[in-house]
Amino acid sequence: AQIRYSIPEELTRGAFVGDIAKDLGTDVAKLAAANLQVLSDSDSQYFSVNVNTGVIMVSERIDREQLCGQNPRCFLHLKLAIENPVEFYRIEVEILDINDNPPEFPGDEVSLRIYELASLGARFPIQPAQDPDVGTNTLQTYHLSANENFNLNVKARTDGGKFPELVLERALDRELRAFHHLVLTAEDGGSPPKSSKIHITIQVLDANDNHPVFDRPSYGARLVENSPLGTLVVKLNATDVDEGPNGDIRYSLSTHNSAALRQIFAIDEQTGEIRVQGNLDFEEATVYEIEVEAKDMGSPTMEEHCSVVVEITDVNDNAPEVILTSFSSSLSEDAPPGTVVAVIHVRDRDSGEQGKVQCHVSSDLPFQLRKDYEHQYSLLTSTRLDRERVAFYNVTVSASDLGNPPLSRHTILPIALADVNDNAPQFEQVSYEVLVAENNPVGSVLVTVSAADPDSEQNSRLSYSILRAGGTDPGLDPTRYLSIHPTSGQVSAKVPFDYEQTTYLQFHVEVSDGGSPALRNRTLVHVFIVDQNDNAPQVHFPRAGEDSATQFRISPSTAPPALITKVMAIDADSGRNAWLSYHLVEATDPGLFSVALRSGEIRIMRALQETDASAHELLVVVRDAGEPPLSTAVTLVVLVEEKGPEALQGSEAQASDGGGLPTITLYLIVSLVLISTVSLVGLAALGVRCL
Fold this sequence. Notes:
This protein is mainly beta. The protein has 7 helices and 49 strands. It starts with a strand and ends with a helix.
């Protein structure tokens, strides 16, 4: 037999299930005597039997959802065993569901990301809630909180499951509302019903449907020229209401800008800062108009343009420029005052007062500037020039503008004066005096005359020549004796001089330059021949041959100091070289005769004796006073004879004793005095000239 009971789940322990004794129609005592036992098919003993009363009770908590899950009917099977006799009864207990579980969502919150350009009617499933109860106690419906964009649609499956989904009823606009917060409620059919909620956060994903917008349609800035690199010009500001890459803006210079402008300005693509990266020059451009574009990073990109007008303020940063329109670097020294040397054009790239230029040259130079008209000057000579005084000028032309502070530029014009043959050569001395020893070698340089010409090049190339001086003996042509080197001025001897023939020469040396016409000058040269001891004394008396001796006869009675004879000699030299002395070098009887040192007189020194020889040989040497001295010897033989010329000898001796100097000696002394006088007068005249 089989007995069925129905009980709700979640009964407390000891709750009544059924009365076995009554349902089986058996006495309770008989069941107790029959050793009644309850056996369960499951591992858990959910029920127990009270053998004294025959009642089945709940012994453990029963959870229908745990036992049977979503099965609509849930049964627990028991076996009832009785002994004497053995009998088995099958008991089936149906566990009835109660609404003990609310619907449960997987989480408390769910997030959706929906593209803002999603089409209307788009559906977005929501994870359904789960309710382990069955029947009417399980999930029955969903409710969506009020909103403007979404409706709720619940899809029912064949298995009874209900799946909620959001339906887009109105277009989204992220820029108006980026997030939507909804509440979805799941409710079962219990009584009372149970429910649970889930919060739905909808993030509207951006679409690149908005272009960047600058806060101003155009920007203006003003910069000083020559602003340093990195100077901030302006900071642009563009916004894009899109988000993410669609709202991420990059700045750049438009391709419409010139390459030159791109080299001067640069823009930071992140910050929009425009900075100076090149040289700002007012003289090249006073205004720059920069085209800038802002692009977002969406796909496709959207962009916006604006213009930036940059005005450049001029500063005095350009020094004046000096341009030579015409210039001659060489100028003749005889150029008259007012001669134009250069035509100068000046300019300044700055503007206003800073571009006005004034020029000047130093006042201590023989040049001046004449302003022809605006920006043009002429450089003129102001005085006469002299190349020999100043041959070269560096004329500095100074150009200054009127800026504050002023800038200036200095241009040096090198001007060389071309020589004109306006200076005659000048000798270093008005006259030259030269002492030349006779017997000089041929070609020896007697004197070097030197002249200078302050002119240059060909005008200063000098040539020397010898001219005969006025008042000179016509027979003494200086060119017979002398020659001069035409360029060095060295006067050389063409022949050896002989003092005994020529004692003095006077001539002019003329110097001429190479100019056209040539200029000349002269100087007087005095050549004094200095005597050398080159002539030995010559014995004029007594004359004798080379190998013979002159004989003189005296009487044995000749008394001392009777003059026996006189040796007479002359020397063609002059001065000390002509001073003669006589010496008795050898004699037969040295003590018998003597020779006067200066006069050459030979006298007997003692009376002759019978023992003396009858013939006496005397060797007399005549010597001059030169260095080294030259001498001549003469041999005399004195014969002692009874018939010798005693009276003649005595009278000559007396005449010699009472007379003056010999005639030849007198001539020599007079000549020496005259030569000394002429020399002293010449030296005195030379000294006066020098002073």
